[in-house]
Amino acid sequence: MGTAGRLAARLAAHAPGERPLRVRVLALAFGFTMFGFVVPALLITLGAWLTGGCGGTSLAQMVASILAVAAGLALMLLTVARQWTTGHGTPVPLVPTQTLITDGVYRLCRNPMVLGALLYFLGLGLLFATPAAALVAVALALSVAVPYHKLVEEQELALRFGAEYEEYRRSTPFLVPRWPGRRAAVGAHSRGAGHHDAQ
User: Fold this and answer.
1) CA-to-CA dists, residue 5 to 66, 168, 192, angstroms
2) Among residues 81, 164, 160, 149, which one has the least CA distance to residue 115?
3) Residue 112: Cβ within 10 Å count
4) How far, in Å, CA of 1 to CA of 38, rounded?
5) What is the pTM of this model?
6) What does 94-158 look like in DSSP terms, one character per residue?
7) Sequence ranges of the domains in the chain
8) Tens digits of residue pLDDT in 80-133
9) CATH class of 20-193
10) What is the C-alpha to C-alpha distance for residues 147 and 40, in angstroms, rounded to an integer?
């Protein structure tokens, strides 16, 4: 078992048991601070530095940034609400959900929080920097998020929820949403095939 597998096993062993309300609130506050302010500020600053600085913001760029930020925030808030009410947990790995969530925004993709964060980072990058810097910020975020979710979180969820998670993983894309009807069709096909991993 590699490092990722050992980390997944430790998280899975630590996961059972709904955390006290105070702990869940603190976890949300920490996540909000980090991913609402600290992480995007670092990513956009690095993106601007790598692409040669900040430029002016056109009207089209401002409109696009507002739409991306609004969509990202909405998706993140819906994800947090679903994890809090249905899963009795938070997006923070040390204060995880206690049930496998497959409805609501989790019908769109397996990682709606990541998708929302990427849209939010893109929008902030467009607002405060340049399109190039915004795209670099998103690419940097993906370079960290995808390996973690693929190598650690998916193993942890498989350890915790077994066949139920494997079926959800086969029928629901990792990050880029499908139309709802398309998901149902793929789910039916994967049950028949038995070993097709939807991405």
Assistant:
1) 39, 20, 29
2) 149
3) 24
4) 33
5) 0.89
6) TS--SS---SGGGGT-S-HHHHHHHHHHHHHHHHHS-HHHHHHHHHHHHHHHHHHIIIIIHHHHH
7) 20-193
8) 999 999 999 999 999 999 999 999 999 999 999 999 999 999 999 999 999 999
9) mainly alpha
10) 19
